[in-house]
Design brief:
By secondary structure, the chain is an alpha+beta fold. Helices cover about 20% and strands about 35% of the residues. The chain is built from 9 helices and 25 strands. It has an 8-stranded antiparallel beta sheet with strand order 5-4-3-2-7-8-9-10. Helix 8 packs antiparallel against helix 9. The relative contact order is 0.08.
Length: about 425
């Protein structure tokens, strides 16, 4: 029996060794690729980050780019900011490009490499080296293209398509962002459309209309800022008279302030499809998304006050003769006696559902009937003072963080009171 066990152990060990050899041993024939495939060689020997200039020449003109202080810009046919990835993807692809050793017979025009069709690509590196490649059309099979190292050929099959990157217009390369808005740090917005003006400002309590106005909807403002940050030009209006597109003076001016500075956009003539605009990059045309930014109404917050549940620590409520205090503990809520209670969540749900009527004429708070305070640690709190009944129904209320008094409908006050014990 012992001899049999030893034999089984030896056989098992041999089997494991054989498996390891099969799994981990290199397979020269497979690693070498198809032995019948034409030989390839790397076309250029430069590192992408050493390239400081790029020139594209075709039958319609010359496009030139230069890198200064680590950033690319267009230098011809005009100086302009560019979408850097459009330039770097060309440089990166050329740095990795391979070609088959054997060239093709036949006319260069058959491969899109004649004077009328090809693009002459020249890269310049920091050490003064200049490298040129002639780019033709895409190959009919596989993600490859035809190129040539010399103007007279022959045509070579490249390992990747280059034509799709270099056969672009100047506008394809130009930066289409009218600004770079830091959405998280936007703090003031001014929209002037004809004689109508709206100012939105942000403080630690949220967004407000003007310096003394009511609360604005945080969701509406943040969604607007997000759309503004994503705005892109559809086309460039170089050489167009600003007056001919309603920009002398502009019909609309939009200003956004954030931590990076002040960003200004001037909008001119609008139609159903888009709008002309003056940006730092010059005159451009935006699509309908540019028109959508012209918004001077519909900013008022509908809720009573901001409710940031994740940050809340204490909820204090007094409504007429009813009052309660709830404190967060171990992820739940406790009442004034320290007992766990679901009432706080019910009250917060009623607060979230309650609506504020901020469209009424400003009213004065002549008495205090109730108070709501939502505390977030020692650094911030939101609150309401609820006052007298109003002739239109409901009660007057005032945000402790600012703004004029507004009306809380009676049905919403009843729902809040019903949530309390």
């Amino acid at each position: 029996m012992d001899r049999q066990n030893r034999l089984l152990t030896v056989l098992a060990t041999v089997l494991l060794v054989l498996v390891a050899i099969v799994v981990f041993a290199k397979k020269p024939e497979e690693d070498a690729g198809d032995p019948d495939a034409p030989a390839q060689r790397k076309l250029f020997s430069f590192e992408a980050d050493t390239v400081e200039s790029l020139t594209l020449v075709n039958a319609s003109g010359t496009l030139s780019f230069a890198k200064a202080d680590g950033a690319w810009k267009m230098t011809a046919p005009k100086e302009a900011a560019v979408e850097e990835r459009r330039v770097t993807e060309i440089v990166d692809r050329l740095a990795d490009l391979k070609v088959q050793e054997k060239g093709f017979d036949g006319a260069l025009a058959d491969f899109g490499l004649d004077d009328a069709a090809r693009v002459t690509v020249t890269v310049g590196t920091g050490d003064g080296t200049s490298l040129t490649l002639y780019v033709g059309r895409d190959a009919p099979v596989g993600y490859r293209g035809y190129v040539a190292e010399k103007a007279e050929g022959p045509a070579l099959l490249a390992s990747s398509r280059v034509g799709e990157l270099v056969k672009r217009t100047p506008d394809d390369f130009r930066a289409k962002e009218p600004w770079v808005v830091q959405t998280n740090s936007a703090r003031r917005i001014r929209i002037e459309d004809g004689g109508r003006v709206v100012v939105l400002r942000k403080d630690d309590h949220g967004w407000w209309l003007g310096d003394e106005g009511p609360r604005a909807s945080t969701e509406a403002v943040e969604e607007w800022v997000s759309r503004a940050s994503l705005l892109r030009a559809e086309s460039f209006l170089d050489g167009v008279d600003p007056a001919s597109v309603g920009l002398a003076p502009p019909a609309t001016i939009i200003v956004i302030e954030d931590e990076a500075g002040t960003h200004t956009l001037r909008l001119g003539t609008r139609d159903d499809a888009g709008v002309a605009a003056q940006t730092d990059a010059g005159l451009v045309r935006f699509g309908a998304d540019g028109i959508d930014l012209v918004k001077v109404d519909g900013w008022l917050a509908e809720g009573l006050l901001p409710i940031r549940r994740a940050q809340l620590d204490v909820v204090d409520v007094t409504l007429g003769s009813k009052s309660a205090r709830f404190t967060r503990a171990d992820g739940g809520w406790t009442d004034a006696n320290g007992a766990e209670t679901p009432i706080a969540d019910k009250l917060l749900a009623a607060l979230e559902a309650a609506k504020a009527d901020r469209t009424v004429e400003p009213v004065a708070l002549t008495q205090e009937w109730g108070r709501i305070t939502l505390s977030e640690g020692e650094s911030r709190s939101e609150g309401l003072t609820i006052g007298q009944e109003l002739p239109a129904g409901g009660r007057a209320a005032k945000d402790t963080a600012g703004g004029p008094a507004f009306r809380i409908p009676a049905e919403d006050l009843a729902a809040l009171a019903a949530a309390l014990p």
